[in-house]
Amino acid sequence: MTDVMTTKKPKKQKAPSLIPVELxxxxxxxxxxxDAESILGESGLAGQLKKMLxxxxxxxxxxxxxxxxxxxxxxxxxxxxxxxxxxxxxxLHLDIPRDxxxxxxPKLV
Length: 109
Prior knowledge:
single chain, alpha+beta, two-stranded antiparallel sheet
């Protein structure tokens, strides 16, 4: 009779969630239809979150750009321009912030 040793694979540790479950519950409570398109579609919850996060990052990037030019600079925010960005999840329509001197080149997009 042979003894067969079995070794258990160590369980993978789940990465800690960046978003609290309570916040996810609050967001889902705002969705009218609980179908896949309303939650995961481009105009649904996930699509809106992607757009808002990307635009927030672009705004922060412009703030950093303007701050690096110093307070004596004549450069300021000057609205935004629409841009269609292709992502692995499909098209994303963003409002890209602009600066008055057109020296801002976002690195995100």
